[in-house]
From TrEMBL:
Record keywords, A-Z: Disulfide bond, Glycoprotein, Immunoglobulin domain, Signal
InterPro entries, alphabetized: Ig-like_dom, Ig-like_dom_sf, Ig-like_fold, Ig_sub, Ig_sub2, IgSF_CEA-related
Ranges of residues in domain Ig-like: 130-219, 224-306
Source species: Scleropages formosus
Protein name (database record): Ig-like domain-containing protein
Classification via PROSITE patterns: IG_LIKE
Highest taxon above the source species: Eukaryota
Keyword Glycoprotein among UniProt keywords: yes
Length: 316
């Protein structure tokens, strides 16, 4: 990081005054501009700027500033305010900066080594490369609930990166099933649940910028579970000769296959079974069996129908 530094100049032969030089931003990312300002603002008639003890800017009255070629397109200096603008910074620009100013009139009066007006050291400044190209990849996306484990890896370009994972709008936190490794770059979920499907994504930041990966949605295969069997019409007794519809549903991915049994004999397939023209022989046990061909699991629901009422015909 950049720290405030001391800028000293003789305010009189008897002593020194202390002011500050501050960067316009800290930290700063590669490609941005940074301005070094002197507080309080002052005129510096003669002086040099150096980086890591190498002079890159020299100026004196009645002449344009002399800038070395590597900085000629990137440096602007205002000697009347002491402000230095450094443009399009790179990682090579980090380090120690020093400003040395000279006061010709003061030098003539004090020739015994007191030939400086001011000197400033700017301590190390970290230049961060912005976050870009944030992506997530998974070692598998088709998974069986309570059986499989998945690992997701987040990658990004930039420097000093921090990784943070989300499932939808919720933070992902470590628990007995969920682990983070490789400085949070890798997310591992054991014995996956259907709630783990996502969308899963990572957010990468480094203090000057951030980026979000495209989401990954896992295809968690589960079920069938929570099977339900309904009868229509829903009445206490069913009239002989009427129709009866039974419907079966369950939570399953992929969707379950349904088989219907009447008194242990398979009579139909599909989620809906319709029995036309009820008779006394329609009384019995109706069973719906849901089956998931991927998980290999099944679940069943049973309905007993034993209250069919035969109403006598009325003669007119």
């Amino acid at each position: 990081m950049c720290l405030s530094v001391c800028y000293c100049r003789p305010c009189s032969p008897a002593g020194l005054a202390t002011v500050e030089v501050k960067p316009s931003m800290n930290p700063i990312s590669v490609g941005q501009n940074v301005t070094f300002r002197v507080f309080p603002e002052m005129s510096i008639p003669v002086g040099v700027w150096s980086h890591e003890s190498s002079v890159f800017l020299l100026w004196y009255p009645n002449n344009p500033p002399n800038v070395i070629p590597d900085y000629s397109q990137r440096v602007t200096f205002n000697s009347s305010s002491g402000t230095l603008l450094l443009k399009f910074v790179t990682t090579a620009d980090s380090g120690v900066y020093a400003l040395q100013g000279f006061d010709p009139a003061f030098t003539r009066l004090h020739s015994l080594g007191y030939n400086f007006m001011a000197i400033v050291s700017l301590l190390f400044c970290s230049f961060l490369v912005p976050v870009s190209n944030v992506t997530v990849r998974a070692n598998a996306t088709g998974l069986v609930e309570l059986n499989d484990t998945v690992s997701l890896t987040c990658s990004a370009s930039g420097s000093s990166l921090n990784f943070h994972w989300f499932n939808g709008s919720n933070d992902i936190t470590v628990n007995e099933r969920v682990q983070l490794s490789d400085e949070n770059r890798t997310l591992t979920i054991s014995t996956v649940l259907r709630s783990d499907k996502g969308p899963l994504y990572c957010v990468v930041s480094n203090g000057v910028s951030n980026g979000t990966s495209p989401p990954i949605v896992l295809d968690i295969r589960y079920g069938p579970s929570n099977i339900s069997l309904t009868v229509s019409p829903h009445v206490a007794a069913h009239r002989a000769g009427s129709d009866l519809t039974l419907s079966c549903s369950s939570e399953s991915n992929p969707p379950a296959l349904y088989h219907w049994f009447f008194n242990d004999t398979q009579v139909a397939q599909g989620s809906v079974f319709k029995s036309d023209t009820l008779t006394l022989a329609s009384n019995g046990t109706y069973t719906c069996v849901a089956f998931n061909s991927v998980t290999g699991k099944n679940s069943s629901a049973v309905k007993e129908l034993a209250s069919l009422v035969l109403l006598p015909l009325l003669n007119g």
